[in-house]
Task: inverse folding
């Protein structure tokens, strides 16, 4: 009996560990929710169509390939695409590189618009980027814990303590998500990069399964 209880306890501990790890997934993986339960599993959904999710992944890959030769080791640039809107974040040494990166990304087929948040600064340190990753995880966990917002509808990107929120959301959701992000210790600023829709449009949205990267 003691051996059996030990095995059960160990299994429970492994389950708790796995659930905890899921909260700390990177921005590249779906964090949650908004899905329907099937048996004991959760079907994760996205407000973008499957085709748009694939388009976003393609845009990000093309952006990396175009940015790398420009920035080299002189800049640190991230390109995040959501619903074909691309957020450029990071650091570049001068305005010329900032403009050139934007032009290259804007010319990628399918890109609807570019939000250029590149700062003219020296590249951030590995420590700063680690801190940003931790903040991203904390903000995601806060959105999940709130229960009154669909966390899977919101993408979180953090640079130098500034949190960028992307997604297709209602004004109510945008305000709530922004307030929650601001409540996280260490967050210096919250920038909304949302595409805002009406409650009626949300009601007519048909979520699609999340496409894994």
Result:
């Amino acid at each position: 009996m003691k051996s059996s209880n030990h095995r059960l306890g160990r299994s429970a501990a492994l389950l708790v560990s796995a659930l905890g790890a899921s909260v700390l997934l990177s921005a590249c993986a779906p964090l949650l929710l908004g899905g329907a339960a099937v048996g004991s599993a959760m079907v994760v959904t996205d407000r973008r169509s499957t085709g748009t999710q694939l388009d976003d992944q393609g845009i990000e890959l093309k952006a990396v390939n175009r940015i790398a030769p420009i920035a080299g080791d002189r800049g640190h640039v991230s390109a995040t695409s959501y619903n074909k809107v691309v957020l450029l974040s990071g650091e570049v040494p001068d305005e010329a590189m900032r403009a050139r990166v934007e032009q290259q990304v804007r010319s990628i087929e399918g890109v609807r618009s570019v939000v250029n948040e590149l700062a003219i600064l020296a590249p951030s340190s590995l420590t700063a980027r680690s801190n940003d990753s931790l903040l991203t995880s904390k903000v995601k966990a806060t959105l999940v814990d709130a229960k009154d917002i669909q966390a899977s509808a919101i993408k979180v990107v953090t640079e130098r303590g500034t949190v960028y929120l992307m997604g297709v959301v209602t004004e109510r959701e945008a305000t709530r998500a922004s307030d929650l992000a601001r409540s996280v210790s260490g967050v210096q600023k919250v920038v909304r990069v949302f595409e805002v829709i009406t409650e009626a449009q949300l009601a007519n949205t048909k979520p699609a399964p999340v496409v894994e990267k």
Remarks:
- The chain has two domains: 20-47+125-209, 50-120.
